[in-house]
Amino acid sequence: xxxxxxxxxxxxxxxxxxxxxxxxxxxxxxxxxxxxxxxxxxxxxxxxxxxxxxxxxxxxxxxxxxxxxxxxxxxxxxxxxxxxxxxxxxxxxxxxxxxxxxxxxxxxxxxxxxxxxxxxxxxxxxxxxxxxxxxxxxxxxxxxxxxxxxxxxxxxxxxxxxxxxxxxxxxxxxxxxxxxxxxxxxxxxxxxxxxxxxxxxxxxxxxxxx
Length: 210
Hints:
Elements: E1 4-9, E2 12-17, H1 22-37, H2 41-55, H3 72-85, H4 88-100, H5 104-107, E3 115-116, E4 121-124, E5 133-136, H6 142-151, H7 169-183, H8 191-204
Antiparallel strand pairs: 1-2, 3-4, 4-5
Helix pairs in contact: 1-2, 3-7, 4-8
């Protein structure tokens, strides 16, 4: 029998309903009701909505649209504008964002002691999900970071303001916005975009399955 199985009780073999969850039973009831009453799509949708609320079910998350990435020309123009600005710390900071795909909240919390120049990696303490991990930077970038810290020997954080405090995520966002405007780029540019930009670049190069 469909949807049933047999169980032996003494000398008798009787069919029994398979164990079903309340949700599964309700779904079957909804389908039967829709067929029997010949509900329209809107009517059936209304019934399902009421059932969802009754069971305390959450709606399925809609897939978020991927951010609009910069074109190669826009990306080049953005960093050329930063270089023309003459602020070396800003250049290094924003290149680190792109080269390592680090999150801005992690970037502003990097301590000088987190950097391993020999292995070209940076320790990220309690990143997303409170998980520790390492991010890698190119060997060609090692001397740049070393020169940056040599010029700022009192730094506690990799990047500090003129008040010798770490940057806030908000301030980094403002810096990115300022350079976007100077570069004349109309597309939205924000720190997290660099993460997507780098992952997309690696994917195109066949270096990641992301």
